[in-house]
Amino acid sequence: MKILSVNAGSSSLKFQMYEMPEEKVLISGVFERIGIHESFYTIKINGEAIRKEKDLPNHKVAFQYLVEELEENHVVERLDEIKGIGHRVVQGGSYFDKSVVVTEDVIKKIEELNVLAPLHNPAAITGIKAAQEVIPNAVQTVVFDTAFHQTMPEENYIYAVPYEWYTDYKVRRYGAHGTSHMYVANRMNQILGREDTKLITCHIGNGASVSAVVNGKCLDTSMGLTPNAGLIMGSRCGDIDATVVTYMMNQLGISAQEMDNILNKKSGLLGVSNVSSDMRDIDAGILEGNERCELVKKMFIRRVIDYIAKYYVEMGGCDAIVFTAGIGEKSVTTRRRIVDGLKILGINLDEKANGIRGVEGKITTDDSKIPCYVIPTDEEVMIARDTLALIP
Ligand code: AMP
Predict the structure, then answer these.
(1) For a disulfide at 31, which of 37, 41, 239, 272, Cβ 3.0-4.6 Å?
(2) Quick check: CB of 189 below 6 Å from ligand 1?
(3) What are the tens digits of pLDDT across the range 180-231?
């Protein structure tokens, strides 16, 4: 059965088509600069990458090209072979604790949550509507980044601000990257051969978050009302004293929106280093002796270790620590420095094993009290699996 995994951004549309349940990727690609000049798309099929410059005024046109490519490349002979389309949605609020089939009511609820994810949720709706128009016979589903974190207990998601902010304005910790945390936690349990586990999953990429997962369910996570909480990220500040915000708004005479922009796009690795939001550039800066690159790397590592230590105590122990996403999967130095900082827990890095990039493997020695693993994440396949499960 053919299932399409879709991730629509405000000006982009990523897709991956699977033969399910085999989980074989048939074709994948991304449409970029939708609604902007110089739009184009790239597709990967049979190990070959193809790029085409096309006018993409909106997501519907992108879907029409997608269908054309599927037919021209004989991925499908008829559109009704596509039985399901799963859409990634960033914010599901407290409404959704699992993936669901799209209905009018579901769309209304996602739209209601637009205020909490002003860039992402409207884009997802655009993607859903475009898919409904172009491929009307497929079952459409939505898979939420926040759903996995809905099992957190109240004390972990309520902020210590007036309680009415929660009841009247929906202010609480929702977390993000849930699909990724769930994927790597499930895979870790498979490797360990049991489900009754205490895991710490570190999704560290351009966006970064850590979760405490007990028996496959989320107990705590570092992202908050929005993805700008917890760890230091490429250009996001993560946890800071909230008063910094009001103090600097007064000092600089800037609006809430300008402040939001600085905290999300000009902070983190970029803000401190003034070099880049990309960890590869930070590492290159360190090799050249750039002190601010070294400073922000130290801060970044410290924060990850702090969260691992917190969750270790919160869970009353830990069976395994997982690293995933761009930095977690590929940055050997970052992993080394994080794991070295965990020696007090009896965790010992296997220097040679830690050399892996982008593949699964254990990176600690056999005598390490807690094993650490690299597990490449795969949010797309999770979307396809959930969609398959929801097809009647
Ligand atoms: P993601 O958001 O998951 O795509 O991750 C992007 C982050 O991963 C960026 O900060 C990249 O610098 C980092 N990254 C990707 N490849 C490497 C690598 N080989 N070494 C260090 N960092 C990497």
Answers:
(1) 41
(2) no
(3) 999 999 999 999 999 999 999 999 999 999 999 999 999 999 999 999 999 9
Residue 35 lies inside a defined structural domain of this protein: yes
**Of all atoms in ligand 1, which is nearest to the CA of residue 277?**
10
- Asked if residue 280 has its Cβ within 6 Å of ligand 1, the reply is yes
Report the predicted TM-score, pTM, of the whole model to 2 decimal places.
0.94
- Asked if residue 213 and residue 139 are part of one domain, the reply reads no
- For atom 20 of ligand 1, the residue with the nearest CA is 331
145 in active site: yes
Same domain, 125 and 241: no
Tokens of 24: 């074989």
CATH of the domain at 337: 3.30.420.40
Residue 209 lies in a domain: yes
Same domain, 219 and 285: yes
Q: Which residues of the chain have pLDDT under 70?
A: none
Q: Which domain holds residue 332?
A: 194-374
Query: Does the beta carbon of 205 sit less than 6 angstroms from any atom of ligand 1?
Result: yes
